[in-house]
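Dear Dr. H.,

I hope your travels went smoothly. While you were away I took the liberty of generating a structure for the chain from your last submission, since the lab meeting agenda had it listed for discussion. I wanted you to have the full record in hand beforehand rather than looking at slides cold. The sequence, exactly as received, is reproduced here:
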Amino acid sequence: MRVVTWNLFHGRSVPDTSRSLLREFTDMLAGWAWDVALLQEVPPWWPASLADGCGAEERHVLTSRNALLPARRWVADRRPDLVKSNGGGANAILVRDGGDGGGAVRAHAARRVRTWPERRVAHAVALADGTWVGNVHATTHPDARTRADLARAGAALAGWAGGAPALLGGDMNIAAPRVPGWDDLGGHGIDRFLAQGLSAVAAPVTLDTQGLSDHAPVAVEVVRSQA
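The corresponding predicted structure, in token form, is as follows:
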């Protein structure tokens, strides 16, 4: 299973672009090989379009700054460089269908891991083979707060998985997560993967975005660990 994690920077580019970049982000994601994509800082109205463009199912959760969302969207669609993170936030999981006709996502679960200073949510999906894949965007600074978010996310995902193999990825906002009971599979800076019952085939690799987002996407291929 190949999994990508990517913080979309609220649909913005570096340098800034004064228009919606939904098509560019969709085309970029669609062009990569992956089975599951874990996305953070996603404009809340994007997940369905991203999934359609990638031939995937999606599940998403709202995070922070989503009050008066229609007004935020009106500005963000026209000037994402101006509204920045105030355009609203979501995390999304995209799953490409394995082809068995039963659908790619068998279950979805979510848990809030922080309310203040910003709402943070961990969520995960169960795949056809029983593997669970989770997505998190932890709070930033101080490190103790970040680690608490990740510990809560890890505990939630382990509970949902119930002993089945599980992968937790996302923007962890810390380069050395050290979550009890989880193996750090690596990543790029703060964008990382943790696992239970899964091993990386090789070290994670970064992907080129041609200026989309301020984060480099990270991809890893995992297999079930040998007993």
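Two observations you may find useful: The CA atoms of residues 71 and 87 lie 9 Å apart. The longest strand covers residues 107-114.

With kind regards,
E. W.
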